[in-house]
From TrEMBL:
PROSITE patterns: PROTEIN_KINASE_DOM (PS50011), PROTEIN_KINASE_ST (PS00108). InterPro entries: CK1_Ser-Thr_kinase, Kinase-like_dom_sf, Prot_kinase_dom, Ser/Thr_kinase_AS. GO terms for molecular function: ATP binding; protein serine/threonine kinase activity. The lineage of its organism: Eukaryota, Fungi, Dikarya, Basidiomycota, Agaricomycotina. This is non-specific serine/threonine protein kinase. Signal peptide: none annotated. It holds the Pfam family Pkinase. Residues 1-176 form the Protein kinase domain. Its EC number is 2.7.11.1. It comes from Hermanssonia centrifuga.
Length: 176
């Protein structure tokens, strides 16, 4: 599972390197190909994606130029807390959505959604509260908790430091 998480992060890194914010990361938008024991991950469905003009990004907590202040597509289940509040969407939101996606892929459910039992929380305030408190649950994987905190602390105009993420939060020797 750790290697699969690393490969998904590297896929997101490549998209962000091209100044694209996916804005709808969820399990159904991740295509996984396994061949000879190695993983190849593809993000699909760029219907809500944004292209960021890096030369004109503001540091005033404004949306990056070219982005919409509120993209209301996708699903509340995997969306970032910023998305739920119609705040500017940025790279940090892709990371936060990826955390929820990885959490779901690892456990087959989220604290606000259990597809096997049919339990789903649709109240946005309740979902937000659960998204803010899942990190305190005893079963929460440390690397996903760390990545969630990292993503939540990024500024709207800040690109993730994937060298730090892959080298510190998801370093190989932590999962040996």
């Amino acid at each position: 599972m750790a290697e699969l998480m690393r490969v998904q992060l590297m896929c997101l890194q490549e998209i962000h390197f091209k100044c694209v914010i996916h804005a709808d990361i969820k399990p159904s938008n991740i295509f996984l190909h396994v061949q000879n024991g190695s993983y190849q991950v593809y993000l699909i469905d760029f219907g809500y994606a944004l292209i960021v003009n890096e030369r004109r990004v503001s540091s005033q907590n404004e949306p990056p130029p070219g982005s919409a202040a509120a993209i209301r597509g996708g699903t509340i289940l995997f969306s970032s807390i910023n998305w739920q509040h119609d705040r500017p969407i940025s790279y940090r939101d892709d990371l936060e959505s990826l955390v929820y996606t990885l959490l779901y892929l690892r456990f087959g459910q989220l604290p606000w959604w259990n597809p096997r039992s049919g339990h789903i929380v649709l109240d946005e305030d309740v979902v937000e509260k659960l998204k803010q408190t899942w990190v305190d649950l005893p079963w929460a994987p440390t690397e996903l908790v760390d990545l969630w905190h990292y993503a939540r602390e990024l500024r709207v105009d800040e690109k993730p430091d994937y060298d730090y993420i892959l080298g510190t939060i998801f370093r190989d020797d932590k999962h040996a």
